[in-house]
Fold each of these.
Amino acid sequence: MEITDLIDLDTIIPDLKATSKKQTLQELACYAEKIIPQAHHDILDVLLERERLGTTGVGHGVAIPHGKFPNLDRPYGLFARLDQPVDFESLDDQPVDLIFLLLVPETAGADHLKALAKVSRTLRDKSTCEKLRGSEGAGAIYAILTSASQSSHAA
């Protein structure tokens, strides 16, 4: 599983505007509705339910919200960089500004875990996150994510 299997230029939001965790998830659900066959309110419900189990704010300004959905043929991703960090109730209490939304089939099983592991490994790299924060536009973000994904694969 590679990052390129999950995202493309159309699923990168370089300057998402939101002021809270809930608003961030609402905005992401609206974008996600364009790439998977689910209504945004259903996507939001799944994401909020997952957050009730425990935060997906993994630390260092990164969150990886995720959920399982019926009628998906494969895992889908959406990457957003917030224009202003928001409180995501992260494990390290730091606000979040980099978010990778992962949407997987209900039957994904191991593929869900592989996708989550790949995204986590990629965004755990501080250098990659610094580059993402300093980049301009969706194309640059895509290039950083995909090259970081390749180098984490080699490690």
Amino acid sequence: MPALADVLDPAAVKLDVRVSSKRQLFTEIAGAAARVAALDAKTVLTALSEREHLGSTGVGEGVAMPHARVDGLDRLFALFWMLQRPIDFDAIDDKPVDLIFVLLVPAGAETLHLKTLAKVARKLRDPGTRGRLRAADDPKVVWRTLTANGSRHEAA
């Protein structure tokens, strides 16, 4: 399984993203993914929307992890965005979200998809990690926080 540093490019980390709804967020994500990963924005938007229709990817504590399989993608592709203001996301805890980790995967990469999501979920479940992300004002610091190996106790 690739390391998060191999899936999440530092340039794919954005802070202070301004969106007012989940729909607008997905449209912006689709456009960004299309530009960076040479995909069709409509294909990405459809894939994310169809997955979200199955159930919210808002996992709680202000975190959402939208993900989808996308035809034409040849490798895992991730984005991490921190929203300027939290938005309603129909999260499992009914709290608005401000930390968005997006994972797009090639069709047929089911095991890799699930293992990568689990790795990211473990990292974002940690209150210390979420606090460091929200306190950061530099995308490089956010990227290093997300891609650091081990737990916060091992890093200390």
Amino acid sequence: MLKDILKILENDAHATTKQISTMTGAPSDEVAKAIKQAEKDRTILKYKTIINWEKVGDEQVWALIEVRVTPQRDVGFDSIAERIYRFPQARTVYLVSGTYDLLVLITGKTMHEVADFVAQKLAPIEGVQGTVTHFVLKRYKEDGEILEGKEEVKRQPVTL
């Protein structure tokens, strides 16, 4: 039951306990209890709204930064990743396979602000060997949501 509840909430954080109860067939009080426990034990970390800031005239500069690091004894990549994810500009930090070690998504008001972050905050961290910054030119889809263009129909057509 918990997985079903979580999938529903991941797709629609506004789903009510009653709606989830109807969708899963579980009693409302059990759904509420499961959600409260998932919040308490940090299975549910945050309820999120995806905003297309361009629509309200508040554009942001997004950048994906590849970071090569030297892993530290006994902690590997975790210590450096923690230093990076503590910066408010870092929206997402992943350990990845391939030619670099960490992938960092950051946002800023201007390209200059992003460049300053990389040069003054990120690159000087001990253990960082190098960075490559990719500026996002246009976002088409984020967390499964299409930002521009036609919204796809999410329901199957009914045929008789």
